Amino acid sequence: MTNILITAAGSYGDIAPYTGLGARLQAAGHEVALATHDSYATLVRAAGLEFRRLPADPRTHHAAPSDTAGTAGTAGTQDAADTAEPGCPSGPGGNRDLMRQAAAFIKELGGGLADAVREDTGLLLLSATTAPLGHHLAEARGIPFLDLPLVPGAPTGDFAPVVSGGRSLGRWGNRAAGRLSLRIIDRLYADAARELRARLGLPPATPRTVRRRAEAAGRPVLHGFSEVLVPRPTDWRPGLDVVGNWWPWHAPDAQLPPVVEDFLAAGPPPVFIGFGSMAGGEGERLSTLVTAALRRAKVRGILQSGWAGLSAGHTSADADLLTIGEVPHALLFPRMAAVVHHCGAGTAAAGVRAGVPTIPVPVTADQPFWAARLASLGVATAPIPFKELSGDHAVARLSHALTQATTAPARRDHARAAALRLATEDGAAKVLKAVTHLSETAPRPT
């Protein structure tokens, strides 16, 4: 039995997968704590895990990357970094501001991570956002660690960095862009790393130096996504593995709310529409737009309010529309005719797992990457960039995509085939195997 600390920071999609993973590890006999923001304390405790607080909650902290650079889906501070390339214009509200705000978020996060580690912590499991700081903690305390990112981050010729919008730059260009992305992330973490190392009594070392040490040592990195969507890059070093998704925890006896079940029973399968932690403050405009598109396509709809505050209204004319709050995608998505969402990593995978077609509406960060992957797999319509969901033709464009998704048998067949492939994977089991190995072979923390 090992005392495990999982650390994850960002929006819901950056946190929820680790609740399912943590519950799986705990069921195997380990003691598991999950350090994250206050907004997710209930989620963590419901999974039976110990909650430990991290500062800079994206729901309340104005300097958090979700406000300044779009964390949803797991790209987080990396999005701020990759938009702030040398030569890009900056100024008030520009890339330089984004860099400052993201760096401030990271500095605050560093102190919280140090406080979350206890004397009996025997293993650190680190998300993409927390890993660059967690490595210093592991060094200082002599604690073994595993990096568990939800998106591919190591440079590869197979594709450009996930926050580049899904556009390939050729094999050489993809690798160069990937290396540039890592260097900019190193810059973002530089101040926080310097302060954290001083607090921990470590000699000075830059984030780039620490990262290169881990790479040279061949440290294992287990990526929590499926090769159904992203095959393991052919030029990755040994130890960079794609293990499959780990899914958000929900109670084994969980059911959809009665109001949802009643709505589903009242007609044909509806279309789900939700933007997660994206589009804050645009609820009224988006609600009007998606409602008009659903009616034009003559399909029923379930709108998940999310951070945008989507609402279907409450008049008799809205009988074919329903507004919901948080509901497990694993329970809801298989009952849908199609799903419309922002294509965060977890939501994209949930749509594939459900075997239903997707209409991708990517907003920022890694979302265009996942949208392009879904389309290339044949399970999604052509992506509609969120910025194009405005203007006179937005309703017609979304309505056309809804019709394509709900009436094309080939797309649904592709979705079902992909779901069958995904069902054969057990990403949490592979993490458990790695944890067991580390627990048996690693020295005790000092």
Gist?
This protein has 446 residues and is α/β, with parallel strands linked by helices.
Structure write-up:
- This protein is an alpha/beta fold and 446 residues long.
- It folds into two domains: 3-245 and 425-441, Rossmann fold, CATH 3.40.50.2000; 258-423, Glycogen Phosphorylase B (Rossmann fold).
- It is 45% helix and 10% strand.
- The chain has 16 helices and twelve strands.
- The chain has helices spanning 12-27, 41-46, 65-68, 77-83, 95-116, 131-141, 170-200, 207-216, 258-265, 283-297, 329-332, 345-354, 367-377, 394-407, 409-423, 427-441, and strands spanning 3-7, 31-36, 50-53, 123-126, 145-147, 221-223, 240-242, 271-273, 301-304, 321-324, 338-341, 358-360.
- The strands form three sheets. It has a five-stranded parallel sheet with strand order 3-2-1-4-5, with helices on both faces. Strands 10-9-8-11-12 form a five-stranded parallel sheet, with helices on both faces. Strands 6-7 form a two-stranded parallel sheet.
- Strand 4, helix 6 (131-141) and strand 5 (145-147) form a beta-alpha-beta unit.
- Helix 6 packs across helix 7 (170-200).
Strand content: 5-15%
Tell me the series of helices and strands, N- to C-terminal.
Answer: EHEHEHHHEHEHHEEHEHEEHEHEHHHH
CATH class of the largest domain: Alpha Beta
Calculate Rg over CA atoms.
21 Å
CATH superfamily of the largest domain: Glycogen Phosphorylase B
Strand order of the largest sheet: 3-2-1-4-5
Task: Measure the end-to-end span.
Answer: 18 Å
The number of domains: 2
Q: What is the mean pLDDT?
A: 86
- Work out the helix count: 16
Pairing-aware structural class of the strands and helices?
alpha/beta
* Strands, total number: 12
How is the main sheet built? Answer: 5 strands, parallel
Share of residues in helices = 40-55%
The unreliable regions are 62-94
CATH topology of the largest domain: Rossmann fold
Shape: globular
Query: What is the CATH architecture descriptor of the largest domain?
Result: 3-Layer(aba) Sandwich
